[in-house]
Amino acid sequence: MRSFIALLVAGFALSGVPGAQAYHRFWAGCNYDAPTFMTTMTRDAAQDYANAARYEGYQWGGGCWNYDDVDSYPNDPPQVAGTHGEGGDCSGLTFKTWRESTDTWRDGRYYWHALRNVHGPYDAAAFRDGTGAPNHTVAKATAGVMDAFASATHIGMVFVRSLYGGDQIVEAKCEACGTNIFYRTYRGDSAYGGVGRWGWTG
Amino acid sequence: MGLDRLMAAAAVSAVFAAAGCGHGGSRPTRLLDGRPALSFTPVRASVVAAGRVLTRSELGRRLDACISAADRAKVAPGTIVVERVSVAGESLTFANRDRSGVFACDAGIDPAGERAPPWCHAVFGELADGRVLDPRLDVICRDRERHPLAYVFVDPVPGARWVGVQQHDYVELYEVLGGLPVRLATTSGIDVEQARARLEMTQYDAEGRELVRGELEATVAG
Questions:
Q1: What angle (nearest 5°) sits at the alpha carbon of residue B29, between those of residues B24 and B31?
Q2: Cβ separation of B114 and A130 shorter than 8 Å?
Protein backbone atom coordinates (compact mmCIF):
# COMPACT_ATOMS: atom_id res chain seq x y z
CA MET A 1 0.00 0.00 0.00
CA ARG A 2 2.87 2.34 0.92
CA SER A 3 4.52 1.76 -2.41
CA PHE A 4 1.22 2.35 -4.16
CA ILE A 5 0.81 5.70 -2.40
CA ALA A 6 4.41 6.60 -3.19
CA LEU A 7 3.85 5.80 -6.85
CA LEU A 8 0.62 7.78 -6.82
CA VAL A 9 2.38 10.82 -5.36
CA ALA A 10 5.20 10.46 -7.88
CA GLY A 11 2.66 10.21 -10.67
CA PHE A 12 0.91 13.39 -9.60
CA ALA A 13 4.26 15.14 -9.26
CA LEU A 14 5.31 14.06 -12.75
CA SER A 15 2.01 15.05 -14.25
CA GLY A 16 2.72 18.56 -13.04
CA VAL A 17 5.89 18.79 -15.10
CA PRO A 18 5.30 21.28 -17.93
CA GLY A 19 6.90 18.98 -20.52
CA ALA A 20 4.63 16.11 -19.63
CA GLN A 21 1.59 18.37 -19.78
CA ALA A 22 2.62 19.66 -23.18
CA TYR A 23 3.07 16.13 -24.43
CA HIS A 24 -0.30 14.93 -23.19
CA ARG A 25 -2.04 18.00 -24.57
CA PHE A 26 -0.31 17.51 -27.89
CA TRP A 27 -1.03 13.82 -28.38
CA ALA A 28 -4.65 14.22 -27.25
CA GLY A 29 -5.15 16.55 -30.20
CA CYS A 30 -3.89 14.13 -32.84
CA ASN A 31 -6.64 12.49 -34.84
CA TYR A 32 -7.47 10.17 -37.70
CA ASP A 33 -9.86 12.39 -39.63
CA ALA A 34 -10.37 11.82 -43.31
CA PRO A 35 -8.40 14.10 -45.61
CA THR A 36 -10.09 16.77 -47.69
CA PHE A 37 -10.06 16.15 -51.41
CA MET A 38 -8.73 19.23 -53.18
CA THR A 39 -8.83 20.31 -56.80
CA THR A 40 -5.82 22.58 -56.51
CA MET A 41 -2.30 22.34 -55.17
CA THR A 42 0.16 25.16 -55.61
CA ARG A 43 3.85 25.24 -54.82
CA ASP A 44 3.30 28.41 -52.78
CA ALA A 45 0.75 26.66 -50.60
CA ALA A 46 3.07 23.69 -50.21
CA GLN A 47 5.84 26.02 -49.08
CA ASP A 48 3.50 27.54 -46.50
CA TYR A 49 2.43 24.13 -45.26
CA ALA A 50 5.99 22.85 -44.82
CA ASN A 51 7.18 26.14 -43.38
CA ALA A 52 4.49 25.97 -40.72
CA ALA A 53 5.82 22.58 -39.61
CA ARG A 54 9.18 24.11 -38.67
CA TYR A 55 10.18 23.83 -35.02
CA GLU A 56 7.46 21.25 -34.39
CA GLY A 57 9.90 18.40 -33.95
CA TYR A 58 10.64 15.08 -35.57
CA GLN A 59 9.12 11.67 -35.00
CA TRP A 60 10.27 8.46 -36.66
CA GLY A 61 7.28 7.18 -38.61
CA GLY A 62 5.26 10.14 -37.35
CA GLY A 63 2.91 12.58 -38.97
CA CYS A 64 1.15 14.69 -36.33
CA TRP A 65 2.06 18.17 -35.25
CA ASN A 66 0.44 21.35 -33.99
CA TYR A 67 1.45 24.91 -34.65
CA ASP A 68 2.96 26.04 -31.34
CA ASP A 69 6.56 26.12 -32.67
CA VAL A 70 7.73 23.75 -29.94
CA ASP A 71 8.53 20.06 -30.08
CA SER A 72 6.09 18.86 -27.43
CA TYR A 73 7.91 15.59 -26.98
CA PRO A 74 11.61 16.06 -27.68
CA ASN A 75 14.40 13.53 -27.34
CA ASP A 76 12.40 10.38 -27.90
CA PRO A 77 14.56 7.45 -28.99
CA PRO A 78 15.69 7.57 -32.62
CA GLN A 79 14.28 5.04 -35.09
CA VAL A 80 11.57 3.96 -32.69
CA ALA A 81 8.03 4.39 -33.93
CA GLY A 82 4.99 4.58 -31.69
CA THR A 83 6.40 6.88 -29.02
CA HIS A 84 3.74 9.45 -29.93
CA GLY A 85 6.25 12.22 -30.41
CA GLU A 86 5.47 15.37 -32.31
CA GLY A 87 6.38 16.00 -35.93
CA GLY A 88 6.72 14.04 -39.09
CA ASP A 89 9.75 12.21 -40.30
CA CYS A 90 11.28 13.11 -43.64
CA SER A 91 8.93 11.03 -45.79
CA GLY A 92 5.90 11.77 -43.61
CA LEU A 93 6.44 15.52 -43.99
CA THR A 94 6.81 15.13 -47.75
CA PHE A 95 3.71 12.94 -48.02
CA LYS A 96 1.53 15.47 -46.20
CA THR A 97 3.02 18.50 -47.92
CA TRP A 98 2.49 16.90 -51.30
CA ARG A 99 -1.15 16.13 -50.44
CA GLU A 100 -0.90 12.45 -51.28
CA SER A 101 -3.26 9.56 -50.72
CA THR A 102 -2.59 6.51 -48.58
CA ASP A 103 -3.51 4.48 -51.68
CA THR A 104 -0.48 4.50 -53.94
CA TRP A 105 -2.59 4.24 -57.09
CA ARG A 106 -4.45 7.51 -56.39
CA ASP A 107 -2.84 10.63 -57.78
CA GLY A 108 -5.41 13.15 -56.54
CA ARG A 109 -4.78 15.87 -53.99
CA TYR A 110 -5.64 15.21 -50.36
CA TYR A 111 -5.23 17.88 -47.75
CA TRP A 112 -4.18 16.54 -44.35
CA HIS A 113 -4.54 18.78 -41.32
CA ALA A 114 -1.38 19.12 -39.24
CA LEU A 115 -2.93 17.22 -36.35
CA ARG A 116 -4.00 14.36 -38.57
CA ASN A 117 -1.58 11.60 -37.61
CA VAL A 118 -0.60 10.08 -40.93
CA HIS A 119 2.71 9.05 -42.43
CA GLY A 120 1.73 7.51 -45.74
CA PRO A 121 3.02 4.37 -47.43
CA TYR A 122 6.28 5.74 -48.78
CA ASP A 123 9.70 5.72 -47.18
CA ALA A 124 12.54 7.87 -48.54
CA ALA A 125 13.70 5.14 -50.94
CA ALA A 126 10.21 4.79 -52.37
CA PHE A 127 10.06 8.52 -53.06
CA ARG A 128 13.56 8.41 -54.57
CA ASP A 129 12.41 5.68 -56.97
CA GLY A 130 9.30 7.63 -57.95
CA THR A 131 7.05 4.95 -56.47
CA GLY A 132 3.31 5.63 -56.47
CA ALA A 133 1.01 7.29 -58.96
CA PRO A 134 1.55 10.86 -57.71
CA ASN A 135 5.35 10.69 -57.71
CA HIS A 136 8.00 10.69 -60.38
CA THR A 137 11.72 11.18 -60.72
CA VAL A 138 13.12 14.43 -62.10
CA ALA A 139 16.56 15.49 -63.24
CA LYS A 140 18.33 17.05 -60.30
CA ALA A 141 19.45 19.99 -62.39
CA THR A 142 15.85 20.94 -63.09
CA ALA A 143 14.41 20.29 -59.62
CA GLY A 144 12.56 23.41 -58.55
CA VAL A 145 10.67 24.76 -55.58
CA MET A 146 8.87 21.98 -53.68
CA ASP A 147 10.40 19.25 -55.75
CA ALA A 148 12.61 17.06 -53.58
CA PHE A 149 15.89 15.24 -53.30
CA ALA A 150 15.76 11.74 -51.90
CA SER A 151 18.26 9.03 -51.00
CA ALA A 152 17.76 5.52 -49.62
CA THR A 153 17.37 6.98 -46.15
CA HIS A 154 16.28 10.60 -46.42
CA ILE A 155 14.18 13.08 -48.37
CA GLY A 156 14.02 16.87 -48.24
CA MET A 157 12.05 19.36 -50.33
CA VAL A 158 13.53 22.36 -52.12
CA PHE A 159 12.32 25.47 -50.33
CA VAL A 160 14.41 27.95 -52.25
CA ARG A 161 16.83 27.25 -55.07
CA SER A 162 20.32 28.61 -54.72
CA LEU A 163 22.71 29.56 -57.47
CA TYR A 164 25.79 28.21 -55.78
CA GLY A 165 25.45 24.45 -55.52
CA GLY A 166 23.27 24.11 -52.47
CA ASP A 167 19.60 24.76 -51.79
CA GLN A 168 17.47 25.79 -48.87
CA ILE A 169 15.81 22.48 -48.03
CA VAL A 170 12.78 22.05 -45.80
CA GLU A 171 13.04 18.70 -44.12
CA ALA A 172 12.38 16.64 -41.04
CA LYS A 173 15.94 15.61 -40.50
CA CYS A 174 16.40 13.87 -37.15
CA GLU A 175 15.25 13.85 -33.55
CA ALA A 176 17.97 16.27 -32.50
CA CYS A 177 17.63 18.62 -35.46
CA GLY A 178 13.84 18.50 -35.81
CA THR A 179 11.98 19.96 -38.76
CA ASN A 180 13.43 23.10 -40.25
CA ILE A 181 14.95 24.73 -43.32
CA PHE A 182 18.62 23.98 -43.82
CA TYR A 183 21.22 24.77 -46.46
CA ARG A 184 22.03 21.40 -48.11
CA THR A 185 24.03 20.20 -51.09
CA TYR A 186 21.82 17.24 -51.99
CA ARG A 187 21.64 18.45 -55.58
CA GLY A 188 25.31 17.60 -56.05
CA ASP A 189 25.32 14.48 -53.88
CA SER A 190 25.35 11.23 -55.87
CA ALA A 191 23.39 9.43 -53.15
CA TYR A 192 20.39 11.66 -53.86
CA GLY A 193 18.03 11.66 -56.80
CA GLY A 194 15.48 14.25 -57.87
CA VAL A 195 11.80 13.58 -57.18
CA GLY A 196 8.66 15.44 -58.09
CA ARG A 197 4.94 15.40 -57.49
CA TRP A 198 2.58 15.31 -60.45
CA GLY A 199 -0.38 17.63 -60.43
CA TRP A 200 0.73 21.07 -59.32
CA THR A 201 -1.84 23.64 -60.34
CA GLY A 202 0.30 26.66 -59.77
CA MET B 1 19.49 -24.61 -49.37
CA GLY B 2 17.20 -23.98 -46.42
CA LEU B 3 14.72 -26.62 -47.43
CA ASP B 4 17.40 -29.11 -48.31
CA ARG B 5 18.87 -28.88 -44.85
CA LEU B 6 15.46 -29.15 -43.33
CA MET B 7 14.66 -32.32 -45.22
CA ALA B 8 18.01 -33.90 -44.36
CA ALA B 9 17.85 -33.23 -40.65
CA ALA B 10 17.10 -36.45 -38.83
CA ALA B 11 15.71 -34.73 -35.80
CA VAL B 12 13.23 -32.84 -37.81
CA SER B 13 10.60 -34.49 -39.87
CA ALA B 14 9.24 -32.51 -42.70
CA VAL B 15 6.30 -33.92 -44.51
CA PHE B 16 4.42 -32.96 -47.57
CA ALA B 17 1.08 -31.61 -46.68
CA ALA B 18 -1.80 -32.68 -48.77
CA ALA B 19 -5.04 -30.80 -48.96
CA GLY B 20 -7.27 -31.56 -46.01
CA CYS B 21 -4.63 -33.58 -44.19
CA GLY B 22 -5.62 -32.33 -40.80
CA HIS B 23 -3.11 -29.55 -40.26
CA GLY B 24 -5.79 -26.91 -40.12
CA GLY B 25 -8.82 -26.02 -42.15
CA SER B 26 -7.32 -23.69 -44.70
CA ARG B 27 -3.64 -24.35 -44.38
CA PRO B 28 -2.18 -23.64 -47.82
CA THR B 29 -0.80 -26.58 -49.73
CA ARG B 30 1.34 -24.62 -52.18
CA LEU B 31 3.82 -21.78 -52.02
CA LEU B 32 3.56 -18.79 -54.30
CA ASP B 33 5.58 -20.43 -57.08
CA GLY B 34 3.51 -23.61 -57.00
CA ARG B 35 5.84 -25.91 -55.15
CA PRO B 36 4.29 -27.98 -52.36
CA ALA B 37 4.13 -26.29 -48.98
CA LEU B 38 6.05 -28.29 -46.39
CA SER B 39 5.19 -28.32 -42.75
CA PHE B 40 7.54 -28.54 -39.78
CA THR B 41 6.16 -31.15 -37.45
CA PRO B 42 7.13 -29.55 -34.12
CA VAL B 43 5.16 -26.43 -34.98
CA ARG B 44 1.45 -27.08 -35.33
CA ALA B 45 -0.32 -25.92 -38.49
CA SER B 46 2.91 -24.65 -39.96
CA VAL B 47 3.97 -23.87 -43.49
CA VAL B 48 7.66 -23.56 -44.27
CA ALA B 49 8.64 -20.76 -46.63
CA ALA B 50 11.35 -21.84 -49.05
CA GLY B 51 14.70 -20.18 -48.59
CA ARG B 52 18.08 -20.49 -50.23
CA VAL B 53 21.39 -18.68 -50.23
CA LEU B 54 22.85 -17.49 -53.54
CA THR B 55 25.31 -14.89 -54.70
CA ARG B 56 24.48 -11.73 -56.55
CA SER B 57 26.22 -13.04 -59.68
CA GLU B 58 24.01 -16.13 -59.67
CA LEU B 59 20.90 -13.99 -59.59
CA GLY B 60 22.07 -11.64 -62.33
CA ARG B 61 19.37 -9.47 -63.78
CA ARG B 62 16.81 -10.74 -61.34
CA LEU B 63 18.43 -8.68 -58.61
CA ASP B 64 19.42 -5.82 -60.87
CA ALA B 65 15.79 -5.36 -61.90
CA CYS B 66 14.86 -4.64 -58.34
CA ILE B 67 17.20 -1.90 -57.14
CA SER B 68 18.27 1.42 -58.61
CA ALA B 69 21.54 1.88 -60.49
CA ALA B 70 22.93 3.86 -57.58
CA ASP B 71 22.19 1.02 -55.18
CA ARG B 72 23.52 -1.64 -57.55
CA ALA B 73 26.95 -0.04 -57.27
CA LYS B 74 26.84 -0.55 -53.50
CA VAL B 75 26.45 -4.33 -53.77
CA ALA B 76 29.49 -6.50 -54.52
CA PRO B 77 29.19 -9.28 -57.16
CA GLY B 78 29.91 -12.01 -54.60
CA THR B 79 27.44 -10.69 -52.06
CA ILE B 80 25.30 -13.33 -50.37
CA VAL B 81 21.65 -13.05 -51.27
CA VAL B 82 18.87 -14.85 -49.42
CA GLU B 83 15.96 -15.68 -51.66
CA ARG B 84 12.65 -16.58 -50.05
CA VAL B 85 9.35 -17.78 -51.43
CA SER B 86 6.39 -17.97 -49.09
CA VAL B 87 2.68 -18.55 -49.57
CA ALA B 88 1.94 -14.98 -50.61
CA GLY B 89 5.31 -13.31 -51.08
CA GLU B 90 8.79 -13.53 -52.43
CA SER B 91 11.87 -11.55 -51.48
CA LEU B 92 15.61 -11.09 -51.85
CA THR B 93 17.74 -9.92 -48.92
CA PHE B 94 21.35 -8.79 -49.17
CA ALA B 95 23.78 -6.44 -47.49
CA ASN B 96 25.75 -3.58 -49.02
CA ARG B 97 29.54 -3.69 -49.42
CA ASP B 98 30.45 -2.49 -45.95
CA ARG B 99 27.52 -4.25 -44.28
CA SER B 100 26.27 -0.96 -42.89
CA GLY B 101 22.87 -1.68 -44.36
CA VAL B 102 20.63 -4.33 -45.82
CA PHE B 103 18.45 -4.25 -48.91
CA ALA B 104 15.27 -6.17 -49.53
CA CYS B 105 13.45 -6.65 -52.79
CA ASP B 106 9.78 -7.31 -52.16
CA ALA B 107 7.64 -9.07 -54.74
CA GLY B 108 3.99 -8.51 -55.45
CA ILE B 109 1.70 -6.41 -57.54
CA ASP B 110 2.34 -2.69 -57.64
CA PRO B 111 -1.16 -1.20 -57.30
CA ALA B 112 -0.02 1.91 -59.14
CA GLY B 113 1.03 -0.30 -62.04
CA GLU B 114 4.41 1.35 -62.37
CA ARG B 115 6.70 -1.56 -61.63
CA ALA B 116 6.80 -4.75 -63.61
CA PRO B 117 6.51 -8.02 -61.67
CA PRO B 118 7.92 -9.66 -59.75
CA TRP B 119 9.24 -6.72 -57.74
CA CYS B 120 6.97 -4.02 -56.45
CA HIS B 121 9.30 -2.25 -54.03
CA ALA B 122 12.82 -2.25 -52.62
CA VAL B 123 13.77 -1.10 -49.14
CA PHE B 124 16.96 -0.29 -47.32
CA GLY B 125 17.57 -0.66 -43.61
CA GLU B 126 20.54 0.50 -41.60
CA LEU B 127 22.40 -2.17 -39.64
CA ALA B 128 23.97 -1.80 -36.21
CA ASP B 129 25.98 -4.84 -35.10
CA GLY B 130 24.26 -6.85 -37.79
CA ARG B 131 20.77 -5.97 -36.57
CA VAL B 132 18.29 -3.73 -38.35
CA LEU B 133 17.35 -0.59 -36.46
CA ASP B 134 13.86 -0.63 -37.90
CA PRO B 135 11.70 -3.40 -39.45
CA ARG B 136 11.43 -1.40 -42.71
CA LEU B 137 7.77 -2.15 -43.15
CA ASP B 138 6.59 -2.18 -46.75
CA VAL B 139 2.85 -1.90 -47.36
CA ILE B 140 3.00 -0.90 -51.00
CA CYS B 141 2.61 -4.36 -52.55
CA ARG B 142 -0.52 -6.42 -53.14
CA ASP B 143 -0.87 -10.17 -53.45
CA ARG B 144 -2.35 -11.97 -56.45
CA GLU B 145 -5.87 -11.33 -55.19
CA ARG B 146 -4.88 -7.66 -54.77
CA HIS B 147 -5.15 -7.89 -51.02
CA PRO B 148 -2.61 -5.98 -48.92
CA LEU B 149 0.74 -7.72 -48.62
CA ALA B 150 3.32 -6.44 -46.17
CA TYR B 151 6.97 -7.20 -45.63
CA VAL B 152 9.12 -6.65 -42.52
CA PHE B 153 12.61 -7.46 -41.30
CA VAL B 154 12.94 -9.49 -38.14
CA ASP B 155 16.19 -9.87 -36.22
CA PRO B 156 16.61 -13.45 -35.06
CA VAL B 157 17.44 -13.93 -31.39
CA PRO B 158 20.57 -15.97 -30.51
CA GLY B 159 19.98 -19.65 -31.21
CA ALA B 160 16.98 -19.07 -33.42
CA ARG B 161 16.70 -21.21 -36.55
CA TRP B 162 13.13 -20.36 -37.45
CA VAL B 163 11.06 -17.20 -37.32
CA GLY B 164 7.33 -17.85 -37.34
CA VAL B 165 4.60 -15.40 -38.17
CA GLN B 166 0.97 -16.13 -37.46
CA GLN B 167 -1.07 -15.92 -40.63
CA HIS B 168 -4.83 -16.31 -40.74
CA ASP B 169 -5.01 -20.07 -40.11
CA TYR B 170 -1.43 -21.20 -39.96
CA VAL B 171 2.05 -20.31 -38.82
CA GLU B 172 4.45 -19.45 -41.59
CA LEU B 173 8.06 -20.35 -40.81
CA TYR B 174 11.12 -18.65 -42.21
CA GLU B 175 14.56 -20.18 -41.77
CA VAL B 176 17.35 -17.94 -40.52
CA LEU B 177 19.88 -17.84 -43.37
CA GLY B 178 23.01 -16.03 -44.46
CA GLY B 179 23.55 -14.16 -41.20
CA LEU B 180 21.01 -11.59 -42.33
CA PRO B 181 17.79 -10.30 -40.83
CA VAL B 182 14.81 -12.35 -41.96
CA ARG B 183 12.52 -10.66 -44.47
CA LEU B 184 9.07 -12.07 -44.05
CA ALA B 185 5.82 -11.48 -45.84
CA THR B 186 2.39 -11.36 -44.31
CA THR B 187 -1.19 -10.86 -45.32
CA SER B 188 -2.37 -10.57 -41.70
CA GLY B 189 -2.48 -7.61 -39.36
CA ILE B 190 -1.96 -4.93 -42.00
CA ASP B 191 -3.42 -1.45 -41.69
CA VAL B 192 -2.77 0.19 -45.06
CA GLU B 193 -4.50 3.44 -44.09
CA GLN B 194 -2.14 3.94 -41.15
CA ALA B 195 0.85 2.34 -42.93
CA ARG B 196 1.21 -0.03 -40.02
CA ALA B 197 1.30 -3.76 -39.34
CA ARG B 198 0.93 -5.79 -36.18
CA LEU B 199 2.33 -9.30 -36.36
CA GLU B 200 2.37 -12.18 -33.93
CA MET B 201 5.88 -13.57 -34.02
CA THR B 202 7.51 -16.63 -32.50
CA GLN B 203 11.12 -17.69 -32.85
CA TYR B 204 12.19 -21.32 -32.56
CA ASP B 205 15.44 -23.23 -32.30
CA ALA B 206 16.44 -25.97 -34.75
CA GLU B 207 14.28 -28.56 -32.95
CA GLY B 208 11.26 -26.32 -32.94
CA ARG B 209 11.46 -25.28 -29.31
CA GLU B 210 9.96 -21.89 -28.73
CA LEU B 211 12.58 -19.29 -27.79
CA VAL B 212 10.65 -16.07 -27.78
CA ARG B 213 7.12 -14.98 -28.61
CA GLY B 214 5.74 -11.51 -28.99
CA GLU B 215 3.95 -8.95 -31.08
CA LEU B 216 5.83 -6.87 -33.61
CA GLU B 217 4.36 -3.46 -34.35
CA ALA B 218 5.88 -1.93 -37.43
CA THR B 219 5.31 1.43 -39.09
CA VAL B 220 6.46 2.80 -42.39
CA ALA B 221 9.15 5.30 -41.49
CA GLY B 222 12.11 7.27 -42.77
A1: 130
A2: yes
User: CA B99 to CA A191: how far, in whole Å?
Assistant: 17
Chain A residues near residue B195 by CB distance under 8 angstroms: 61, 102, 118-121
Cβ pair B195:A121 closer than 8 A: yes
Residue type, B78: G
List the alpha helices (DSSP H) in chain B. Answer: 2-8, 56-59, 61-64, 69-72
Domain ranges for chain B:
2-219
Chain A positions touching B68 (Cβ under 8 A) are 128-129, 193
Whole-number Å distance between alpha carbons of B78 and B191: 37
Q: CB neighbours (10 Å) of residue B192?
A: 19
Global pTM value:
0.88
A193 touches chain B (CB under 8 A): yes
- Asked whether the predicted pLDDT for residue A129 surpasses 80, the reply is yes
List the single best residue of B103, B110, B121 to mutate versus A (max A Cβ within 10 A).
B121
Predicted ipTM?
A: 0.86
Determine contact: B100 vs chain A, CB below 8 A.
no
B163 SS3 class: strand
Q: Where are the domains of chain A?
A: 2-30+37-197
Question: Which residue, among A32, A60, A127, A131, would best test binding to B if mutated, counting the most B CBs under 10 Å from its CB?
Answer: A131
Cβ of A118 within 8 Å of Cβ of B194? The answer is yes
Q: Quick one: fold of A2-30+37-197? A: endopeptidase fold (from Nostoc punctiforme) (3.90.1720)
Q: What is the pLDDT along chain B (222 residues), one digit of tens a residue?
A: 444 444 444 333 444 343 333 344 589 999 999 999 999 999 999 999 999 999 999 998 999 999 988 899 999 999 999 999 999 999 999 999 999 999 999 999 999 999 989 999 999 999 999 999 999 999 999 999 999 999 999 999 999 999 999 999 999 999 999 999 999 999 999 999 999 999 999 999 999 999 999 999 999 999
